[in-house]
Specification:
Layout lengths: L1 E3 L2 E8 L4 E6 H6 L12
Antiparallel strand pairs: 1-2, 2-3
């Protein structure tokens, strides 16, 4: 996730699109996506 232009964005791999996408968090949660995992800095 990243904070851009005053809101949270999610970078995620979309299997149906066949690529990595950046979407607003509010849009992703509205589409009922489920979290499978995440990466974190050590």
């Amino acid at each position: 996730m990243c904070w851009l232009a005053g809101e949270w964005w999610v970078l995620h791999a979309d299997q149906s699109a066949g690529s990595v996408l950046r979407q607003r968090l509010r849009d992703v949660t509205r589409l009922h996506f489920q979290l499978e995992g995440f990466y974190a800095w050590k």
